[in-house]
């Protein structure tokens, strides 16, 4: 295929063994790199490679030697590149298929745009690298051997997605998921957050603690509510130290945000205490403490309901958080008020 030859740098004529020999690399190391990049496996004697593959393998070898990047780290870097490029390539081909409506037209259209996409990818990558360096300085990761960072983590989940999937065609479902992903990505980026991952009916995002993650959660819930073609979402936010690893986040706050999302009702946003407390009194935000819930694997957690405030105060009516008030230190509502809030705000009890 002409498009494949153009993308690969010519007609494949070299076997993996020949590529490794030309690049001065052991076949075993070449095979490990190939697997790390997530590329299809081929027999060592099959002519599936070009001079571009020789150059790439030699470049990786120089990177390991010149930058003193250990073999394990080099393979981790290759895995990150492979996962990112695999997803990007799938997206691009899918978008062109949707645009043309014909698989036969995709190769030609791809050839038309691929030369322009290369510089754009390089530019975007460099901009994200610059931002990552800024974040590195802010987080001071070098001082923390555990590589943990303080983050507010959010989950947004499409309500009754399984039921929706049964009622619509595969094409309609694909469009719905696409619109959800686009909406979520736009909202998160607008507030300076970062999308960690998207899995069909849910998005995991993260942001520095403060008002920004609350804005993301509220804007996302409202955007989905206002779009007649999209189902509602429920959102959970949790704050704490998480492990940052190869672009992903791990830790208790991630699990807590997920569990809060699971108990939220459609169109609502629930916060844990560490997320809610600093926001109390913030103009434009209304926070209401609810009764404790037992979250699976995490124990008792007191959720807070987050809404936009019409009165310009960050504390719900009837909740006294001032010192010496005799109230719960977290500003918890009384049991009767709490039950009423669960019913009125659509957060029915267990």
From TrEMBL:
<dbReference type="InterPro" id="IPR050697">
    <property type="entry name" value="Adenylyl/Guanylyl_Cyclase_3/4"/>
</dbReference>
<dbReference type="Pfam" id="PF00211">
    <property type="entry name" value="Guanylate_cyc"/>
</dbReference>
<dbReference type="GO" id="GO:0035556">
    <property type="term" value="P:intracellular signal transduction"/>
</dbReference>
<dbReference type="InterPro" id="IPR001054">
    <property type="entry name" value="A/G_cyclase"/>
</dbReference>
<feature type="domain" description="Guanylate cyclase">
    <location>
        <begin position="152"/>
        <end position="261"/>
    </location>
</feature>
<dbReference type="GO" id="GO:0004016">
    <property type="term" value="F:adenylate cyclase activity"/>
</dbReference>
<feature type="region of interest" description="Disordered">
    <location>
        <begin position="304"/>
        <end position="350"/>
    </location>
</feature>
<feature type="compositionally biased region" description="Gly residues">
    <location>
        <begin position="313"/>
        <end position="325"/>
    </location>
</feature>
<comment type="similarity">
    <text>Belongs to the adenylyl cyclase class-3 family.</text>
</comment>
<dbReference type="InterPro" id="IPR029787">
    <property type="entry name" value="Nucleotide_cyclase"/>
</dbReference>
<dbReference type="GO" id="GO:0006171">
    <property type="term" value="P:cAMP biosynthetic process"/>
</dbReference>
<protein>
    <submittedName>
        <fullName>Adenylate/guanylate cyclase domain-containing protein</fullName>
    </submittedName>
</protein>
């Amino acid at each position: 295929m002409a498009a494949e030859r153009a993308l690969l740098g010519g007609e494949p004529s070299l076997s993996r063994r020949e590529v490794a020999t030309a690049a001065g690399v052991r076949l075993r190391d070449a095979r490990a790199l190939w697997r790390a990049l997530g590329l299809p496996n081929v027999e060592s004697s099959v002519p599936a490679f070009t001079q571009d593959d020789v150059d790439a393998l030699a470049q990786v070898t120089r990177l390991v030697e010149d930058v003193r990047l250990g073999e394990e780290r080099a393979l981790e870097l290759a895995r990150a590149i492979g996962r990112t490029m695999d997803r990007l390539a799938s997206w691009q081909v899918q978008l062109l298929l949707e645009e043309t409506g014909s698989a036969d037209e995709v190769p030609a259209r791809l050839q038309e745009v691929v030369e322009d996409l290369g510089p754009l990818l390089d530019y975007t990558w460099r901009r994200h690298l610059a931002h990552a360096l800024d974040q590195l300085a802010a987080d001071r990761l070098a001082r923390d051997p555990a590589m943990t960072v303080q983050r507010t983590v959010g989950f947004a989940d499409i309500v009754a997605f399984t039921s929706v999937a049964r009622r619509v065609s595969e094409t309609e479902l694909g469009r719905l998921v696409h619109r959800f992903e686009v909406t979520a990505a736009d909202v998160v980026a607008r507030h300076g957050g970062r999308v960690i991952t998207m899995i069909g009916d849910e998005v995991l995002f993260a942001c520095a603690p403060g008002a920004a993650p609350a804005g993301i959660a509220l804007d996302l819930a409202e955007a989905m509510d206002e779009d007649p073609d999209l189902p509602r979402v429920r959102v959970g936010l949790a704050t704490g130290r998480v492990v940052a690893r190869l672009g992903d986040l791990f830790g208790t706050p991630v699990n807590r945000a997920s569990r809060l999302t699971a108990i939220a009702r459609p169109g609502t946003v629930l916060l844990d205490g560490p997320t809610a407390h600093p926001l109390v009194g913030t103009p434009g935000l209304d926070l209401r403490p609810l009764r404790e819930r037992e979250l699976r694997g995490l124990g008792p957690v007191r959720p807070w309901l987050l809404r936009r405030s019409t009165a310009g105060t960050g504390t719900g009516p009837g909740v006294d958080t001032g010192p010496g008030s005799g109230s719960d230190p977290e500003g918890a509502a009384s049991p009767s008020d709490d039950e009423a809030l669960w019913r009125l705000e659509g957060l029915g009890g267990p």
